[in-house]
Amino acid sequence: MTTPRAALVYNPVKVDLEALKAAVAAEEEAAGWAETLWIETTEDDPGQGQARQALAEGADLVIAAGGDGTVRAVAEELRDAGVPLGLLPSGTGNLLARNLDLTLDDTATALETAFRGDDRAIDLGLIRIRHPDGTVGQHAYLVMAGLGLDAKMLSATDDELKAKVGWLAYVKAIAQVLRDKNQLHIRYSLDGGPNRSVRAHTIMVGNCGSLPANILLLPEAAVDDGVFDIVVLRPEGFVGWVQIMVKVFWENGVLRRNTVGRKLMGLTKEVRALNYLKGRELVLKLQRPEEIELDGDPFGEAVAVKTWVDPGALTVRVPREQ
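The chain above was modelled as a monomer; its predicted structure follows.
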């Protein structure tokens, strides 16, 4: 029987390499695995090429050590590969790890899960983006795709400040983009249905529902249900933003988390400022180019988008059930 071997794709900016190598060596020995293959990401290749190399060299497990961008890039190449993805989160977001309730700040536990955990099949979001110059790019994402204020906020965030204070850096960016009065003018079709028009400040398509700071944006989203949850934010002035904040932070963040709260939610009304949809495929056409983000990383401007779910396309290592 061949001894299994892992490959670890790491972002050198995000990890303490010496400490990580020591922790991996200890877990390899405990799990009875061969020496891990180490592959470093680069500015030009954030993880796709490294994941391909890992598969070509016969890795039985590919561990992504870095931020959300590294995880997304590696997952893109592991789609339908039959090789599990292990998560060693770092950076400010760790969005997939948060949504899978994985350890965020304990390297030893995260490595134990990667080497000796259970396999779980989750959905992968695929997206085709048409840019203003006519080029089309296809990508995968794990958590959310966003158009509008969401993407503008990310592009307005100071990267140096983000490195120092994490998600607090977005406060300045949020204040900046909320002054932007431009709305998205969208024509869309959901699951091959009729074309509809909507004006909105933001539209987000989610495979998972939780954001950092325990914000539950898409309360019914699940990583393995075969559908997207979509939220359209269209506040009208200050009152509309207040309605959104109450819905997201109070109802989703507090009431929904206990039985009494869920009963109280039955008494609340839906608000026009925030609408939820579900579907497996969404096609969007925009009146003008708009910025788009995937899993917290900017992907330029889009004039049209097609996104769909690939159910169970990615296998992820999660803690072993006791």
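The chain has two domains: 6-116, 125-311.
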